[in-house]
Write a structure and sequence with these properties.
Elements: E1 4-7, H1 8-18, E2 32-42, E3 55-56, E4 75-78, E5 81-88, E6 99-101, E7 103-105, E8 115-124, E9 132-137, E10 147-152, E11 159-165, E12 181-185, E13 192-198, E14 202-207, E15 210-216, E16 232-237, E17 258-270
Antiparallel strand pairs: 1-2, 2-17, 3-7, 4-5, 5-6, 5-17, 7-16, 8-13, 8-17, 9-10, 9-16, 10-11, 11-12, 13-14, 14-15
């Protein structure tokens, strides 16, 4: 049984004490975790992805996954950091995709309902780059099963998008009420911690431990508005190109390689 953690600094001290010599762990802010218990995490130590926690994302037709590749250059664990890269395809004779990217998912390996999530990450930006930290419901398909976007970043923006999706938010003609997303300012090239606090009545998005947007349950709107009562799993994805990210301009191959680095991911439950 993991003990209740009062501040993130306690966790960081333990990690640093067991980190390999020479590892350059990023400086970590302190967050108040009084009343929370760590139930699942990955510090990305070692040199291989934990197969009990993650699988690599497979290619599909949706914009977020249509450049996914198993190319080993695109995913690396080094000095306690997960590197997800995006590159221009230098072997078009083997793969028709113009760019190649990587992502990981905890689908069928870890999912949870209600709690606090924190993911520390940064990115190397590029025109057409679209890194994201997000969650999907175990059941119901999309969008009926729900989606929680803890962070999406586009191009060279100094903001991130934090959004929820459901059948209700994707029903034509439905007013955006309650507002299902917002943006938050960031220092684009810095390490930032993205997350949420999620319970039966609301989802509170956070950036660096501070609330950035709240999406409430509206009971009269039913399950179409609130599919967020089931378990959700994680997707950490690096993508290049797509209808949304390219609205401000075409992908520029001169900007690549690009990518996202993830220092750690942690999930907490309320301590009883």
């Amino acid at each position: 049984m993991l003990p209740t953690l009062r501040t993130l600094s306690l966790v960081s001290a333990l990690i640093l004490a067991t980190a390999p010599a020479g590892a350059q762990a990023p400086v970590t802010e302190e967050f108040d975790l009084a009343g929370w218990k760590l139930i699942w995490h990955d510090e990305f130590n070692g040199d291989e992805l934990h197969s009990s926690k993650w699988s690599r994302c497979k290619r599909g037709t949706a914009d977020w996954m249509n450049t996914m590749s198993d190319d080993p250059r695109l995913l690396e664990l080094k000095d306690g950091i997960l590197h997800l890269r995006g590159i221009e395809n230098d072997k078009p004779q083997e793969d028709s995709a113009p760019y190649l990217t990587a992502g990981v998912t905890s689908e069928k390996k870890f999912s949870f309902r209600y709690g606090k999530v924190q993911i520390r990450a940064r990115f190397k930006s590029a025109q057409g780059a679209w890194p994201a930290l997000w969650m999907l419901g175990d059941n119901g398909g999309w969008p009926a099963g729900g989606e929680i976007d803890l962070m999406e970043h586009l191009n060279f923006d100094s903001i991130v998008y934090q959004t929820v999706h459901s059948k209700y938010t994707h029903t034509p003609g439905v007013k955006d009420e309650p507002k299902h997303g917002s943006t938050a300012k960031i220092e684009r090239d810095d390490w930032n911690t993205y997350g949420c606090e999620w319970d039966a009545d609301k989802i509170v998005m956070t950036v660096n431990g501070k609330p950035s947007h709240t999406y409430p349950r509206v009971e009269k709107l039913g399950d179409e508005q609130w599919p967020f009562k089931q378990k959700f799993y994680f997707i950490l994805s690096m993508q290049i190109g797509g209808g949304w990210v390219n609205q401000t301009g075409a992908t520029d191959p001169a900007d690549y390689p690009a990518g996202m680095e993830v220092d750690w991911i942690r999930v907490y439950k309320r301590a009883d």
